[in-house]
Amino acid sequence: MIIKEVIELIEDFAPTKYAEGFDNVGLLVGDASAEVSGALVTLDTLEATVDEAVEKKCNLIISFHPIIFSGLKKLTGRDYVERTVLKAIKNDIAIYAIHTALDNQHKGVNDMICEKIGLKDRQILIPRKDSIKKLTTFVPLKDAEKLREALFSAGAGSIGNYDNCSFNITGKGSFKGNDDSNPVVGEKGKIHYEEETQIGITYPAHLESKILKNLFSAHPYEEVAYEIHSLENENQQLGMGMIGELDNPVDEKKFLEQLKETFKTGCVRHSKLRGKKVKKVAVLGGSGAFAINNAKAAGADVYVTADLKYHDFYKAEEKLVLADIGHYESEQFTKNLLYSFLSKKISSFALILADTNTNPIHYL
Predict the structure, then answer these.
(1) Per-residue pLDDT, 160
(2) Which residues make up the binding site for a divalent metal cation (predicted)?
(3) Is beta strand 269-270 parallel, antiparallel or unpaired with respect to 26-29?
(4) 103 known member of a binding site
(5) pLDDT score recorded for residue 324
(6) pTM for the structure as a whole
């Protein structure tokens, strides 16, 4: 396989279109047409990670966090970012990062945290709004079924747990071709009326090019009439954070102790305990202060996240308990998620889970 083919597998799982605007995802270093000798899956890409890739004969590093986050104006080796990139280039090692594209996936980072905690009935905490589009097109009655099937096969018409969803209206279309036209029905220069089906169908934004390709190839008309609208509907399968429930309510202190043990963190920083049982839990891997109000609004008893500042803890307002388990600790299982997914798809080269511990924080 070449690197581009591996990237296509990853982005089928976590499309980079849904990464946050501030992020830097995708192929950061390397040639997408290079053949893959081996791939190292890691949370972070550091110099030590590149050394491990060299040792294990991997020319591709698949990383959760991007080593290049803001723009690089020089490559002189003056800091750890530049040194890592230089070492990767010198050793012909490509670096790919997925970051918030995986954060936003329903079966991504936060689902993994929920799994480790044991949460059931999981839902997205902050559903995404800018990810659903609607296609409306018009096709002769006899060709409607063929066109619907073509659109469904490209991924259109999926709504939550349902697929093959569309709305169809029968009506009469009219058109008149000019001298350069080549109409499938009717005659050029004469107005023609055709019994048609109006098909309305929604689709995930990242599939648009594939869906339009199928529309044009399956539609019988020389000129295809269609409209595309971006919807404000919230996507319940995509977004930041998750919320779920424990099978049985537990004492707050016991829950925090279990967090510390499960995530192997040096400490759990938390807001004031409320003296109530924990049943509903919200989670968001990495820096999650921005979602405190969302967790409160969702009725969470505890919000598990990382990188909370001093004044963030005041925002609990005794309506829930904020639990900061550490950035690395909250995302440490992400590489296992990527490895598990890719290992089911790839057999043509070695896929290796990195051993290098990239946590920059230590505890006494």
Answers:
(1) 83
(2) 65, 103, 327, 331
(3) unpaired
(4) yes
(5) 98
(6) 0.91
